[in-house]
Design a protein that fits this description.
Blueprint lengths: L8 E5 L7 H15 L5 E5 L5 H12 L5 H25 L4 E4 L6 E3 L8 E4 L2 H8 L3 E5 L2 E3 L5 E3 L5 H12 L4 E5 L20 E3 H9 L7 H10 L3 E5 L7 E4 L16 E17 L4 H11 L7 E5 L4 E8 L4 H15 L3 E14 L9 H11 L6 E5 L2 E7 L3 H11 L7
Helix pairs in contact: 1-3, 2-3, 5-7, 6-7, 8-9, 10-11
This protein binds adenosine-5'-diphosphate (ADP), aspartic acid and magnesium ion (MG).
Length: about 425
């Protein structure tokens, strides 16, 4: 990027920070203050409040299965409303500004409607507007295909727009303004004692995001890690210092004495499919999971329990909204693989403990299971990686599980 864009900042404002005209005006005042330093500024906005949910609801009122292309064009309107209103509010403050849609901003994407991925960014228009000393407001969540169809990047995708623009424009860092003061040891709405982290590495943040901490879109963290882009997460309602997400090597924490468990994530959107008594032989898992993969259903935890009679029960979890399709796909392969029956559940959730320190220290799994047992919380499925342990539990108990684990691992205390 040219020298004129030196010191460029990207700020992103989430839906709750823009939920009303008054909040848009408040966010605009913050933007104008940053812009008054004279540094180039790009602002990414989400749709106002619950607009995206409302638009989806509306679509399902007019059609039983809304068309994906039409859905994306519909959903993109939410972000367009915010961006234009933000530009108008800035004009009212005498701050030159212009709003751009994702397409106008040069954000190209794949054709995977509802979950499109950014392929590349052509930021020439943004750069031109910045050189004219305008604050550039870009709609989050949107992309455009080579055929000029509008796409969206998946729920929560405005974070990814912000980080992608920060990387493409060579910004120093990406500021994410939201309705909490930063990244906490657990969802602060569930655990009042949760502690705000001053900083966290990409690896732990990515894991937390993938496991349900919706404060950051996982793909935004992935991109930031790839480009080494620091992200600062802070409240749009206060001046309190937020959380810096950056390279593990840049963390200021003492190297070996910090807590092994850094945070707890939970996700209430979990359904399970179990194929009962399938023959225990090669090829069965492939026959089940290939059609799911082709349908774009992301399978999460998988568990297999072998019986003595040469059969096994094979369970997997998926997001609730994929359950219907997963059932019909599983039913279609079930005669071929010889399953006795299919059992499903849509009342589950998962809770995960996350921390890079767990990889070299034993005993965390046992402590997690003991804590849940003491609270009378039944574990359905367990899955682990180097830096996390996940338990699938009844949805009605997941918030208790988060609170119990937060206390058991003493996350309310300083490192
Ligand atoms: P925005 O509209 O700004 O994108 P989101 O609702 O997507 O905001 O994300 C912010 C929410 O994420 C918070 O209100 C909080 O309830 C939730 N959250 C979940 N886990 C965490 C965590 N570990 N730290 C902070 N917030 C979290
Ligand atoms: N408005 C979109 C959503 O609600 C994108 C976002 O807010 O990040 O998912
Ligand atoms: Mg969000």
């Amino acid at each position: 990027m040219s020298a004129e864009l030196d010191g460029l900042t990207v700020q992103k404002y989430g839906g709750s920070s823009l939920a009303s005209a008054e909040r848009i005006r408040a966010a605009a005042r913050r933007v104008a203050r940053t812009a008054s330093s004279g540094r180039p500024l790009v602002v990414v906005v989400s749709a106002m409040g619950d607009t995206t949910d409302e638009l989806i609801g509306l679509a399902y009122k007019v059609a039983t299965r809304p068309d994906d292309r039409e859905m994306d064009l519909l959903l993109s309107t939410g972000e367009t409303v915010s961006a234009t209103l933000m530009a108008m509010a800035l004009h009212d403050l005498q701050q030159p500004a212009v709003s751009l849609t994702g397409a106008q901003a040069g954000i190209r994407s794949t054709r995977a409607f509802l979950r499109a991925r950014i392929t590349d960014i052509h930021p020439e228009r943004i750069a031109t507007e910045l050189r004219h000393a305008k604050v550039v407001i870009v709609t989050g969540f949107q992309g455009v295909t080579d055929e000029q169809d509008i796409t969206t990047l998946g729920r929560g995708g405005s974070d990814t727009t912000a980080v992608a623009l920060a990387c493409a424009l060579g910004a120093e860092r990406c500021d994410i303004y939201t309705d909490v003061e930063g990244i906490y040891t657990a969802d602060p709405r569930v655990v009042p004692q949760a502690r705000k982290l001053a900083e966290i590495g990409y690896e732990e943040m990515l894991e937390l995001a993938q496991l349900g901490a919706r404060v950051m879109h996982p793909r935004a963290v992935e991109l930031a890690e790839l480009y080494g882009m620091p992200i600062h997460v802070a409240s749009s309602f206060s001046e309190a210092p937020g959380t810096l997400i950056h390279r593990d090597g840049d963390l200021h924490m003492p190297m070996e004495i910090r807590k092994a468990v850094r945070g707890i994530a939970h996700d209430t959107d979990v359904a399970r499919v179990t194929l009962v008594r399938v023959p225990d032989q090669p090829g069965v898992a492939a026959a089940i999971f290939e059609p799911l993969a082709e349908a774009g259903i992301s399978v999460d935890t998988i568990a297999q329990s072998s019986g003595a009679d040469g059969t096994t029960d094979l369970s997997f979890t998926i997001p609730s909204d994929s359950l219907e399709r997963a059932i019909s796909l599983t039913k279609s392969v079930s005669p071929q693989i010889g399953a006795a029956s299919i059992d499903t559940a849509d009342d589950l959730a998962k809770v995960s403990i996350v921390g890079t320190g767990m990889q070299s220290a034993p005993g965390y799994a046992a402590r997690m299971f003991r804590t849940l047992a003491r609270a009378g919380i039944n574990i359905n499925i367990i899955s682990t990686s180097d830096i996390r342990i996940t338990c699938v539990v009844p949805r009605t108990r997941v918030e208790d599980a988060v609170r119990e684990l937060h206390a058991a691992f003493e996350l309310d205390r300083e490192d």
